[in-house]
Structure prediction request, 285 residues.
Amino acid sequence: MNIVYLNNQFIPSNEAKISPMDRGFLFGEGIYEVIPSYEGKFIGLQVHLNRLYNGLESLGISSPLSNEKWIELCQELIARNEGENLAVYLHVTRGDSPTRNHAYPTNTTPTVFAFTFDIPAQPVPEKQNATVYNVSSQQDLRWKRCQIKSTSLLGNVMHFQHSINEGNKETILFNDQNQLTEASASNVFIVKNNTIMTPPLDNQILPGVTRHIVLALLKEHSKFTIEERAISYDEVLNADEVWLTSSTKEIAPVIKIDDNIIASGKVGDVWLEAQTLFSQYKYQY
Ligand code: PDD
Prediction:
């Protein structure tokens, strides 16, 4: 039985109960994080926590725990769940309110829920063993505050399901100017002629922690030119390589978008270099 954390208690998951009047349930009013750990070591923990604080601040919710207590919670949860490679999911809502009213209530106590799930280890990246992605593309029909890691994921879920309906595993999104934003649960990078590009941070994308780490590693340890700039639909389709990044996928090569094969349909050399840097970083102690 998985052990979860709910409002100051570590309990078996089947004992965790939350009020249906919780504003997370009624309004989807909350913030979440997914934080990966390998052999007990968290990747980007403080960057994840900082993004959690930014999200909570944008909703006017004070962080229910201190930074130290969040770290303790994450560590204790992976210790109690005894997995090798676990992601910690943190979920904070405004809490339980007796009346349903759109206005923020003043006296609620935030609900804090956390659990773990297994993630793949991916220790040594190899082209032939890479998990490759065939993806769909769609116009980005989500909201204009995508920098907030909101638990209201309906827009993302609908875009994701579109890819499943088409027999794919993700949907890459483009704004109404036909510029790349991100994917329904990942950031997107492209490679062309030894330049690695990804859209800049703004309200159209989540500031991904994996994106942040990948950019820092490439800037420090590789010879590639790095650009954070607007990327058109045509540039994506004509790229040498396209990658998805997220805490659970790390760097994942895309080999097909709708009916278009990317480059030769093979995993690229630049991916191998980037994922090798990431894997080395992961297991550094
Ligand atoms: N998804 N963009 C979106 C819309 C995401 O949902 C995610 C992550 C990312 C990548 O962010 P990060 O590198 O910090 O994981 C970008 C998580 C993993 C999820 O919802 O399961």
